[in-house]
Each structure stands twice: as C-alpha cells, then as structure tokens.
Specification:
binds flavin-adenine dinucleotide; FAD/NAD(P)-binding domain; five-stranded parallel sheet; 2 domains; 342 residues
C-alpha cells in the first residue's frame, strides 16, 4: 500500500512480536472509541455493509454516559438522559451489523498494511481502515465531592449545561480563554458568575480578559482554589481557600463549572499522526483524513473548538463516508497487498 509511514524512532515492536497476527481477522473498518463520533461512524459503515468492529474503550458510550439531561441533541424535543441516548446510538449501530467489543486499543502499527492494532495488550486485530474517535476528557480539579456531584451542579461544559442554571449564582474555575468564554456565556442565565483563579492574573488573551472584566455579572476571586464542593444531592456551595493566606471561605453557588482544559485521548497514536501541542489529531481541512491513507479521525479527538455531541456525530459520519470511499478507491491496490494474516 502506497504512502505508509515508517515506524516512529522510539516505536516498541516487542508487543507486536509477542502476538500471533497470522491468525488475526482482517476487518475492513475498525472504529476506536464508542462515543457519538465512533457509534455514528459504525452506523454508517455498518449500513454500507462494511461490518465495522468497534473497540469501545474504557468508557463505552463516551462522555455522555457521565451526564444527566441532554437538551441540545436534535430529535429529542423533550431532552434525553445521556446514558439513554448513548444506548440508542449503540442499538442503532448494532442493528446494521456493528460489532461492539469491550477493550481498549493499547498499541498500533500503521507502518504495515493491513494496519496492526493490539487490544488490551493481548488481542491482535488487523484493519484495512481505522477510524479514530477516542474523544477528549475534561480535566477536573480532583475533589471527591466534585466527582460525586458531577451532573448535579458540577459540569465541565457551559454550552451543554449553562441553560439549566437560570436565575442562580454560579462559579467557574479557570483563567484561560475557554474559562472567560464560558463565564461570559453563563451570564446569560445566572444572576452572578464568580471566576475562581489560583493566581492574581489571567492566562486568557487580553481581549477575552477585558470582555469578562467589563461584564457586571462577573466577579473575580483571585489567588483562590476550590477545596470542596458542598451539597447532599445537588451543589449548594463551594469551599474556597486563599492560596496566599490559607483562609477558607464559602460561596453559596448552585453550580460549579470547571474550565481548566481537556486532554485528548490520543497518546496511543503519538508519533504516528500529526497533533497540535495539546494532543488533538490534525486532519486535512474539510475532511477526516489524517496523514496516513486509510486512517481517519473524528469527534473530540480532533476538535478542540466545538466539542459537542452533534458535531462529534457529524464528523463520525464524515469519517465513515471518507473511509468507505477510500476503501472503494483502493480496492485493487488493497487486494494486491498480501494480508499479514496469510
Ligand atoms: C459532563 C458532560 C456533559 C456534556 N453534555 C453535553 C450536552 O448536553 N450536549 C452535547 O452536545 N455535548 C455534551 N457534552 C460533550 C459531549 O459529550 C462530547 O462532545 C462528545 O461525547 C464527544 O464525542 P466523541 O465520540 O468524540 O468522544 P467521547 O464521547 O469522549 O468518546 C470517546 C470514546 O473513546 C473511547 N476510547 C478512549 N481511548 C480509547 C482507546 N485507547 N481505545 C479504545 N477506545 C478508547 C472511550 O471509551 C469512549 O467510548 C458533555 C460532556 C460532558 C463531559
């Protein structure tokens, strides 16, 4: 197959040598990840008779299984619970022949064709095309009560959850552009938004910082960190520590938004695919093509801008169509390549 990359310099071949790829099945499409992007790619490639295999990863269903109401996915006028929506995605993909498998892709070798993948360090898999949809995980502060109250007042997505907090006071943690953007967005619903920041100056760009500072609903709480989230069933307040004086105070907010960044789940592809500094996979503009022919990327793993279920599903559809067309265009070439399995 033309255009395959050479192995990255620090590539560890040992996991591949330990396994017997000669008896591994060759799949036309392997989808890595089972959030809205991966399951949409599976639905489309399934309906195209490509019998996709989906490696679901550590969070089958993706990020939305950690949330409650989803009110902004088209087609559900009453809203739907995140886990219920993702079950519907799974059912729809399975109906068209997607093979949903537990496990996590722990290594890939894109220098041979069919591509080699290892699941859970022990299961070999061969793929004629790979669709990467491993998402990006929001970073959290790391407090036990923050996790307990996730979806009950704690959120990492103002666009997703801001509208649930009308007429109340909120807090947001962070000092970058995203935090400012989200704080400004939250002022549409909240009576007041406290921006909690560890330092006495922002990392955000001047223009975003000025916009946030000019908004009368936003109040900055400098040199402070959240040390606890309060409330039995829903957020009723947060405990703040002044990092200079050690003084602990309480803010009676009804919601805490965490805007301290995201980490794309792309480590396993490092060295193979171009990524930006934060680890988001770079795709060819207007498509889901990566630099490796036959490897496509979609959803939050390649999108640091929108990060919504509907955009993830949209690019999942694009990846499926891109891979389907690529497989068809290269049919003769693919047949000429003796699969490793033989
Ligand atoms: C609390 C919360 C609430 C949200 N609410 C909304 C909302 O109301 N509306 C909205 O539109 N968006 C919402 N979002 C954002 C939305 O969830 C994401 O934009 C969307 O899930 C991204 O889809 P994805 O398929 O790209 O990735 P994800 O949903 O993150 O799925 C990634 C998948 O990759 C798998 N994976 C990761 N690594 C590997 C690996 N090595 N091998 C195999 N699989 C792997 C995971 O198991 C997972 O299945 C919310 C997000 C959060 C965190």
């Amino acid at each position: 197959m033309q255009g395959l990359p050479s192995r990255p310099a620090d590539f560890d071949l040992a996991p591949f040598e330990r396994l017997d790829f000669s008896s591994a099945d060759v799949h036309s499409v392997v989808v890595v990840g089972s959030g809205p992007a991966g399951l949409t790619a599976a639905l489309y490639t399934g309906r195209a008779n490509l019998s996709p295999v989906v490696i679901q990863g550590p969070e089958p269903g993706g990020q939305l299984i950690t949330t409650t109401d989803v009110e902004n996915y088209p087609g559900f006028p009453e809203g739907i619970m995140g886990p219920d929506m993702m079950r519907k995605f799974e059912e729809q993909a399975s109906r068209f022949g997607a093979d949903l498998r537990y496990g996590m892709v722990t290594a890939v070798d894109f220098s041979v064709y069919p591509f080699r993948l290892i699941v859970d360090e022990e299961r070999p898999l061969l793929a004629e095309s790979v669709i990467i949809s491993t998402g990006a995980s929001a970073k959290y502060i790391g407090l036990p009560n923050e996790q307990r109250l996730l979806g009950r007042g704690v959120s990492a997505c103002a666009t997703c959850d801001g509208a649930f907090f009308r007429g109340v006071e909120l807090a947001i943690v962070g000092g970058g552009d995203t935090a400012m953007e989200e704080a400004l967005f939250l002022t549409r619903f909240a009576t007041k938004v406290y921006v909690i920041h560890r330092r006495d100056e922002l990392r955000a760009s001047k223009i975003m910082a000025e916009r946030a500072m000019a908004n009368e609903k936003i109040e900055f709480v400098w040199n402070s960190q959240v040390v606890d989230v309060l409330g039995e069933t829903d957020v009723e307040g947060i405990a703040l520590e002044n990092v200079r004086t050690g003084e602990v105070t309480q803010l009676d907010v009804k919601g805490l938004f965490v805007a301290i960044g995201h980490k794309p789940n792309t480590d396993v592809f490092k060295g193979w695919l171009p990524m930006n500094d934060a680890g988001y996979i770079e795709t060819v503009k207007g498509s889901t093509y990566t630099n490796i022919p036959g490897v496509f990327a979609c959803g939050d793993a390649q999108d640091h801008v929108y990060r919504q279920a509907v955009t993830a599903a949209g690019t999942g559809c694009m990846a499926a169509i891109d891979s389907e067309r690529w497989l068809a265009e290269h049919e003769a070439e693919r047949a000429a390549v003796a699969p490793l399995a033989k």
